[in-house]
Automatic annotation (TrEMBL):
<dbReference type="InterPro" id="IPR008258">
    <property type="entry name" value="Transglycosylase_SLT_dom_1"/>
</dbReference>
<keyword id="KW-0812">Transmembrane</keyword>
<protein>
    <recommendedName>
        <fullName>Transglycosylase SLT domain-containing protein</fullName>
    </recommendedName>
</protein>
<feature type="transmembrane region" description="Helical">
    <location>
        <begin position="12"/>
        <end position="37"/>
    </location>
</feature>
<keyword id="KW-0472">Membrane</keyword>
<keyword id="KW-1133">Transmembrane helix</keyword>
<comment type="similarity">
    <text>Belongs to the transglycosylase Slt family.</text>
</comment>
<feature type="domain" description="Transglycosylase SLT">
    <location>
        <begin position="112"/>
        <end position="206"/>
    </location>
</feature>
<dbReference type="Pfam" id="PF01464">
    <property type="entry name" value="SLT"/>
</dbReference>
<dbReference type="InterPro" id="IPR023346">
    <property type="entry name" value="Lysozyme-like_dom_sf"/>
</dbReference>
């Protein structure tokens, strides 16, 4: 009888312990589940605060950060021609059979450069007419290049073509260098005509080159005033 009771109590104890163990596991499982759920909820809130959903403040901020910066582009529109040079443009287009559209930026560059350097823009245009007939890619056997047929090796203080051998075929660069050369020669000789002869590399006392350029300049001046002088 006693052994039977002991066995019965042992079974009850074992059953109790088994239930307790299952209960403990359930409690532990519940605790773990609640902890994980809490973590997920916290991360979800953080995600919201960071703009996880489209349209959130953080998303807008991120878009703003990667959005390329808007840079103002400088106005590169050619300098507007004066009324006089507008008339000269028409004259050149007819006299030299070149496009008025193509010659306009050349005249604009001569206008701006002439004013800044201190050389009559019409003198620069006349030199272009004689030297290249407004062909910016002209090149002579002697190495004279561009609109004003400048020889770069003779003017290393004004242009360095070692880094860019095609620099003198840029109209603005060529006109600027040509104007600086003429300005220097005018100052050193004291005369536009002698400066032109030096520009041409000629010491002929009759100054044929200078006379030719000045004749073209006179025609340009006549056209600028509205005259119809197409004889040169």
């Amino acid at each position: 009888m006693f052994a039977t009771r002991i066995t019965k109590y042992a079974r009850h104890a074992a059953s109790f312990m088994l239930h307790f163990a299952h209960g403990g596991l359930l409690v532990a499982g519940l605790i773990v589940t609640l902890f994980v759920a809490s973590r997920i909820a916290n991360h979800g809130v953080q995600g919201l605060s960071l703009g996880s959903f489209t349209g959130g403040p953080a998303t807008s901020a991120a878009v703003e950060e990667i959005e390329p910066e808007v840079v103002e582009v400088a106005d590169t529109t050619a300098t507007k021609l004066s009324p006089d040079l507008q008339r000269v443009k028409t004259y050149i287009a007819k006299r030299y059979q070149v496009s008025a559209v193509a010659v306009e930026p050349l005249l604009a560059s001569a206008q701006q450069t002439g004013r800044s350097v201190g050389v009559d823009p019409l003198l620069l245009v006349a030199v272009m007419a004689i030297e290249s007939r407004f062909n910016p890619f002209a090149e002579s056997p002697m190495g004279a290049q561009g609109l004003m047929q400048v020889i770069p090796k003779w003017h290393p203080d004004k242009i360095d073509v070692k880094s860019d051998k095609g620099a003198m075929f840029d109209p603005d660069t060529n006109i600027r260098v040509g104007a600086l050369v003429l300005k220097e020669y005018i100052q050193s000789t004291g005369s536009v005509e002698r400066a032109l002869q030096q520009y041409n590399g000629s010491s002929d006392p009759t100054a044929p080159y200078a006379n030719k350029v000045m004749a073209v300049k006179a025609a340009l001046s006549q056209a600028a005033r509205g005259g119809k002088f197409f004889g040169v």
